[in-house]
Amino acid sequence: MASAIITGGSEGLGRELAASLSQLGWQVIIDARHAEGLDRAAVDLGDHVLGVVGDVTDASHRRALVEAAVARGPLELVVNNASTLGPLPMPTLDAYGLDDWRQVFEVNVVAPLALTQLALPALEANRGTVVNITSDAGVEGYEGWGGYGSSKAALEQLSRVLAAEHPDLSVFWVDPGDMRTQMHQDAFPGEDISDRSPAADSVPGLLALILGEYPSGRYQARCVAEVTS
Amino acid sequence: MSVLNATSPEPRSLRASALAANQHLAAHPSLPKLPASSVHFDLPPALEASEPPEARGAGRDDVRLLVSAGTEAPVHARFTDVADFLGPEDLLVVNTSATMAAALDATEPSGRPLEVHLSTRLPSGLWLVEVREPDERATRPDFSDHTDVTLGLRGGATVRILARYRGSHRLWLAVFDTGALTLDELLARFGRPIRYGHVPRDWPLSAYQTVFGTIPGSAEMPSASRPFTPEVVARLAAKGIERAPIVLHTGVSSLEGSERPYPEWFEVPAHTAGRINQVRAAGGRVVAIGTTVVRAVESSWRPDGLAHARSGWTDLVVTPDRGVNLIDGLLSGWHEPEASHLLMLEAIAGSAALSLAYDAAVAHKYLWHEFGDTHLILPAPRG
């Protein structure tokens, strides 16, 4: 059975997607920076899911991810899901520290590109799929979202060019929509975000993109498939 | 009539769709085309069972049984005597999945009538469905593009067809909106069992349930269990022949040519895995009642050589190359030429024994398909 890498898989959207793919028999490699949450997720999700502790900005960690995936089956899917909001509360651009800015781009743009580069030979051989998780903040101009939003805009354009350069691959850059996750809570400190959908609501659309025949492109997960019953 | 190596007559439409299938598969090398079975035969239309035995006043168990033990001459018997070929050292593994009323009338936005067959429930509320077009006998495949089309269903429900399932020219990803009803309620109210052209009229869902089926979820009846009646089960029990359950919810069976099977949900409980391991260790035979059981049990195998409790979706395809690790025998119906199930049968029986059996079945006019006769494959007797 095919293998997949999902970065940031110990909670939220990454974990939900890992659960669905592993039920379908995929071998799923997930990662996170902290062993505790990652181990718990990997145990909960069963023996089809392997957790590899590390930081996506670390080149040796990225190599470990690809090696683990290739060892477990033909690598057919990379989901660049891990990302950072940057400093909290999110500063406006006039006060954005340039080192912070660079770090946001390291995690949200450079790391996905580097992981994709490493996985490309296997993905090409298997006509695989790259899913880059982006955001409406990469398209709209929300106050305070200058670092994260411009990194997501860069990730979207990177995806668009990757799709043009690799017509045999399926490349999807996907806005999952607002989700009731820790990351979203961090972006809105002290705010009640209970009106946001659970991350699981964005999974049917992502799963459909992965399992179906869709042209490469930008998608909104909840428009691809909304499950009402 | 010589049946070995005969060229199967292939209707034009079938050939065209097989080509279409291969084009889709070619785009996804991870879903390679299956090899063809080395067993070839012609299936004369007269041997297609067109109604259940009850229709002629007979019992469900009043069908024939061909018993193959290795390459010994096949034995012709009655299904009611199946217990005569088994012993208390053997374990029968049965599928407890029950059949859904999985065919729904549907309407395109243009008003064109269609039929949607629910094949497979996937995680996260997605379904695999087949879209078919009514014809004079039943339905036929509909090859038009249904991408992102919402079809109307009865009771105000809808099904949104999302996209083709990768590597399939026939199955679609879909989500249902069943309004105030649950999907199960919708099927109970408006669904009917999936039926193909070799059966000219509808039969009630009860005709498609087996004595072991208790957990609804199969698109089509796990038909090897159909001839089991309380009397047959009582004779097995009297001989001390034990049964152990698995669940495998079947998808639609209408795949053509060498199209590759898609995932199906299964569960092998811990108790069943344990009994399989004990029976094998004691030298008994594990006999699968149906190809669905082979798929489930073999999916529970791990490289330690044992069966393990497992549940989830399986995409395992049992071929002669892969072989079987836990199954020694199989009770099954008769499978169409080119069906991928023939590869599984070959993996269990070997191609020589299987050719002998299919030759004998055609020569002696056994009946094919879900309402037809049965075939028990056992290993060659120990010398």
Order of helices and strands of chain A: EHEHEHEHEHEHHEH
Shape of chain B: globular
* SS field, number of helical segments of chain B: 7
Radius of gyration based on Cα positions of chain A: 16 Å
Show unreliable segments of chain B.
1-31
| CATH-assigned fold name of the largest domain in chain B | QueA-like
The helix/strand class of chain B is alpha+beta
Largest interface: chains, residues each: A-B, 30 and 29 residues
- Gross CATH architecture of the largest domain in chain B: 3-Layer(aba) Sandwich
Total domains of chain B, how many? 2
Query: What level of helicity do the residues of chain A show?
Result: 40-55%
CATH superfamily of the largest domain in chain B: QueA-like
Number of domains of chain A: 1
Helix content of chain B: 10-25%
- CATH architectural label of chain A: 3-Layer(aba) Sandwich
Please identify the oligomeric state.
heterodimer
**Widest sheet of chain B: strand order?**
2-1-18-17-15-3-13-14-16
CATH class identity of chain A: Alpha Beta
Q: Roughly what is the average pLDDT of chain A, rounded to an integer?
A: 95
What is the succession of H and E elements of chain B? Answer: HEEEEEEEEEEEHEHEEHEHEEHHE
In short:
The complex is a heterodimer of chains A (229) and B (383). By secondary structure, chain A is an alpha/beta fold. Chain A contains 8 helices and 7 strands.
Can you describe what's shown?
The complex is a heterodimer of chains A (229) and B (383). Chain A is built from eight helices and seven strands. Chain A has one domain (3-224): NAD(P)-binding Rossmann-like Domain (Rossmann fold, 3-Layer(aba) Sandwich), CATH 3.40.50. The radius of gyration of chain A is 16 Å and the shape is globular. Chain A is α/β, with parallel strands linked by helices. With 383 residues, chain B is of the alpha+beta class. Chain B has two domains: 12-99 and 204-378, QueA-like, CATH 3.40.1780.10; 103-190, Beta Barrel (Thrombin, subunit H). In chain B, 20% of the residues lie in helices and 25% in strands. A nine-stranded mixed sheet of chain B has the order 2-1-18-17-15-3-13-14-16, with helices on one face. In chain B, strands 5-6-7-11-10-9 form a six-stranded antiparallel beta barrel. In chain B, β1 (64-69) and β2 form a beta hairpin. The model of chain B is unreliable at 1-31 (pLDDT under 50). The chains are: A alpha/beta (229), B alpha+beta (383). At the A-B interface, α1 and α7 of A face β10, β11 and β16 of B.
